[in-house]
């Protein structure tokens, strides 16, 4: 499955199918939360959160690809990610784009 952030694929004629998405609400565990709180005292990257969001993006992407494959898509164009805080200690990550077939 080809995934691109641009709206077209050079050299390909595309037929748009529909918007596809993958989403996950991911929470940190107490250990990560505690260590992140300690890290804010000295500054710098909070690696536990970086890892958590990378995992969440990977799961959301896989779910979006599964959705596109179920439609018979060859690619997803206009790929985007968004995230938001759902509640204390939990974030939603969504991956979305337009599923397309090559003509």
Keywords:
elongated, Translation Initiation Factor IF3, four-stranded mixed sheet, alpha+beta, 4 strands, 103 residues, single chain, 2 helices
CATH architecture label name: 2-Layer Sandwich
User: What is the residue-averaged pLDDT?
Assistant: 88
Query: Count the helices. How many?
Result: 2
Structural class: alpha+beta
Question: What does this entry show, briefly?
Answer:
By secondary structure, this protein is of the alpha+beta class.
Question: How would you describe this structure to a colleague?
Answer:
The model has no long low-confidence stretch (mean pLDDT 88). This protein has 103 residues and is of the alpha+beta class. Strand 3 and strand 4 (90-102) form a beta hairpin. The two termini are 15 Å apart. Helix content is 36%, strand content 41%. It has one domain (2-102): 2-Layer Sandwich (Translation Initiation Factor IF3). A 4-stranded mixed β-sheet has the order 1-3-4-2. 16% of the residues are buried. The chain contains 2 helices and 4 strands. The protein has helices at 30-42, 47-70; strands at 2-3, 14-27, 75-87, 90-102.
Secondary-structure topology with pairs:
Elements: E1 2-3, E2 14-27, H1 30-42, H2 47-70, E3 75-87, E4 90-102
Parallel strand pairs: 1-3
Antiparallel strand pairs: 2-4, 3-4
């Amino acid at each position: 499955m080809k995934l691109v952030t641009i709206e077209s694929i050079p050299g390909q004629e595309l037929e748009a199918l529909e918007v596809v998405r993958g989403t996950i609400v991911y929470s940190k565990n107490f250990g990560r939360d505690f260590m992140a709180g300690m890290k804010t005292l000295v500054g710098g990257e909070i690696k536990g959160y970086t890892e958590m969001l990378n995992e969440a993006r990977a799961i959301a992407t896989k779910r979006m690809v599964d959705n596109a494959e179920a439609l018979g898509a060859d690619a997803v164009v206009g790929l985007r990610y968004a995230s938001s805080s759902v509640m204390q200690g939990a974030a939603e990550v969504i991956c979305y784009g337009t599923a397309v077939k090559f003509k």
